[in-house]
Amino acid sequence: MPFTEKDNALRAEFKFEDFTQAFAFMTEVAFAAEAANHHPNWSNVYNTVSVNLTTHDAGNTVTQKDHDLASAIAKIYGKYA
């Protein structure tokens, strides 16, 4: 799993061939996050997407929601790796 737990968040950085591929990945993750009603803190610079997951309504701690979304994101990334 590309995520590590640090400072009360699950964190990962994903690299892609180019911006278009990174944006396509983010689009797929957006649909998964919306379906789970759990949304990442993330950023994108060219071919790199950084993701931080924490549950705000649980006091900004890592919960099962974060682990579940991290698994879904890892699965999506697997299609690009």
Automatic annotation (TrEMBL):
It holds the Pfam family Pterin_4a. The keyword Lyase applies. SUPFAM superfamilies: PCD-like (SSF55248). This is 4a-hydroxytetrahydrobiopterin dehydratase. Keywords: Lyase. InterPro entries: PCD_sf, Pterin_deHydtase. It is an enzyme of class 4 (lyase). It catalyses: (4aS,6R)-4a-hydroxy-L-erythro-5,6,7,8-tetrahydrobiopterin = (6R)-L-erythro-6,7-dihydrobiopterin + H2O. Belongs to the pterin-4-alpha-carbinolamine dehydratase family. GO terms for biological process: tetrahydrobiopterin biosynthetic process. Its EC number is 4.2.1.96. GO terms for molecular function: 4-alpha-hydroxytetrahydrobiopterin dehydratase activity. Signal peptide: none annotated.
